[in-house]
Amino acid sequence: MEATLKSGASADDVRAIAEAAGEPEWLAGWRHDAWDVWEQTPLPDRVRHLWRYTDPEKFLIDKVTPVLPAAAGQAEDELPAGMQESPAGVGIVDDASLQTAWLAPEWREAGVIIADLATAASTHEDIVREHLGRAVGRDAGKFEALNAALFPGGVFVYVPRNVAVNGPIHLFRRHGLDLSAAFPRLLIVLDEGAEATIIDEYSSPGDARIVANSVVEGTVLPNAKLSYFNIQRWGSRTRSHARQRFLLQRDASASTVNIALGGQHSKTDIANVQQGENAQSEMIGVTFGSGSQRFDTHTEHVHQASNSYSDMDFKVVLEDEAYSAYTGLIRVDLEAANCEAYQENRNLMLDPTCSAQSIPELEILNQDVSCTHGATVGPIDQDQVYYLKTRGLPEREAEKLIVEGFFGPALDRIEDEGLRDRLWGLIDDKIAG
Amino acid sequence: MSDQTPIFEARGLRVAIEGKEILRGVNLTIERGQVHALMGRNGSGKSTLAYVALGHPSYEVLGGQVFYNGQDVTELDTDERARLGMFLAFQYPMAIPGVTVSKFMHSALKARAEGGNVQLREFREKLTSAMDLLGVDKSFTGRYVNEGFSGGEKKRLEILQMFMLEPSFSILDETDSGLDIDALKTVAEGVNATRSDERSHLVITHYQRLLNYIAPDVVHVMMDGKIVRTGGPELAHQLEEKGYEWLEDELLQPAGA
User: Fold this and answer.
1) What's the pTM value of the predicted model, to 2 decimals?
2) Mutate to test the interface with A, among B87, B103, B107 (most CBs of A within 10 A)
3) For residue B243, what is the domain's CATH number?
4) Number of domains present in the structure of chain B
């Protein structure tokens, strides 16, 4: 594939991407509208609290080149080699294109779909049209508009009505081109009563200078149950702007786990919106920063309907000169009665040179609510370290065990043993590094 | 190095915390295979000696030395001392949230093992038999270390660790405080079961009570940062009968009076 685009982007590039992806007219039009939004929207004002901790200029693409999509790979019959887990499906995106889409035969027959999003815009136009941009609209923000205009292929995951997929669907987004702009996009639709676990993993080599602008959105229809894991392993020279938002309809539930280990500067905005009555959301965050990494994370639990439930547990470990800013909003709308919303953010700092901020935010318009929130920021407890050292553990091992204990309750919720072990391996590597 | 080398020795040990001198020249020698009791009032410096023996970073050694098995360990880091064979059962053990007892014990054993390997199966067998011996409930292994433990459970876990790690020299810092008689017996059984020619113990306590179950070879009394008297088991009984005032009065008498 020859990249013909230049640094930065123009309306011509939007056309080139739409053509290269071979997508239908409606999607091309959708992209152009998004491009207009991008052009007409000023850079976010740093006085606005969501941009207080990150300079938006970091995500401009003047010096990097958007990647044109290659032809999407064909659906494959064989499980890709080297998988440690036993997945129900696998999707592998290399740079701009979904190169591998594999589903175990029983799920393929049941009508589950893992597909290139631009292709699905033709083959499954009704569903894609209904849900694309629904949770993260083109007008959600300047950078969200840019993703909508320029995402090269994207991934579409659909689980039909009452199909409960047993085993994870594992997506790998591998971006490797130096000085490139990456626009990963994922649309998940779980139809009524469907169930699925989706593992969404992002990586890039340490030496590649990449500006990543990703969007993950999804609709969890009535009675459906989504378990979503976002594993951020960007390389140390990748900047990441990520927006993730799921809409939960009546009696739907979502459990989302965001594990952030990589990247140079990561700004992540995660939301679950309880749109329907009895919707249940559980949100877990695990961030581990080292070196000079910066993480700016915002979470939102929005209760739009009565009897909805949310629980948020966000844990941060920092070492060296790493920095984390966390803001977490619980919003309960006026018409949403009898909701429960819980939020906790804990920050553990291994070195005096790192720093963390934690700002819980509440917008409770309906007073018939049970709500708690808490935040702690503190250094590692030296008495705990001493205790472990008296048992023979060297200081580093003692810290490692304390960190494992800190993250443990969150990671232990991962049922897939292979994945859990691999994540522990990544965290241990980071501690050892 | 012959077997005559004491397992532990404090020589002229002077120690301060936050500028305040707590130990003011402690001399203490513990021979191999012996159980010594260290008695004294609150604030006399007993716990300080325990912490300093294991290199607590908050304490400053102003003078003197600590020897383990003939080796000067005064400058060694806590974990190095532990791996040589020293152990401290804490008066107030720390909770380690999210870390199960099983994982904790496995990590501690791995830290000591040659090549860092401990077979999981052997480990489980060893843990199970130690728990049986100490009458510790099986559910212990899956609980987070000391989190939500009762006082008695914490002390049992300390003894369980002493069992598993097989140190040559163990200090038990007021392990008997706040224990009911059953828990006290568990502690005593733990010490007695690990008594051997190769293993030594320093039992720190206010009271004679624990010493009814653990017969010490030697009893030391600490006052105001010094060992003021050393004797046989009868010294503990005298203290129990007559109180610390008796000893204070005795010490006030001019020598030979």
Assistant:
1) 0.88
2) B107
3) 3.40.50.300
4) 1
